[in-house]
Amino acid sequence: MFTVPSVAADRFAGILQATQKIDPTTMRPKQGYTADGKPSGEAKLVDGHQVYRVPVQYVDDDGVDSSVSLQVFTLPTAQIPALAQLVPTGTVRMVPWVRNGRIAWSLTADGVEVLDSATGVLDD
Known about the structure:
With 124 residues, this protein is an all-beta fold. It has no helices and 13 strands. Strands 1, 2, 7, 8, 9, 10, 11, 12 and 13 form a 9-stranded mixed sheet that branches. The chain is globular. The chain starts with a strand and ends with a strand.
C-alpha cells in the first residue's frame, strides 16, 4: 500500500464537513477486519492506537468529494452539529486506495475541531 507522507494539520488544504450530528459519547473504536474481509471483533489500530470514524465529506474550491474518509485518535470534546465545518488537528496521515475504480482517501488525524463558518475561527 502506498502512503503519502504525513502533514501538519495547518498544512492540510480544504475543509471537512460533518455529514451528520456527531455525539462523541456514542462513538466507538473502528473495528478491524481479517484478511478475507470479515470483521475481526478487535479494534482497528493505526500506529498502535485505536481510531474513531468521523462521518465527513471533503470540500475545497472544486466542490465536494465524498470519497474521503476520516478517522481520529482523540474523540471530539463536545457534540458536533450536522454540516459543521471541521479542521483536523495535530498530524494528518493520508492513505490513497481504490474504490470502484476511483482513487479514494483515508485520512487519520490526531483530532478535529469545529470551524465557525461566520468568523473562520476555531470554536472553543
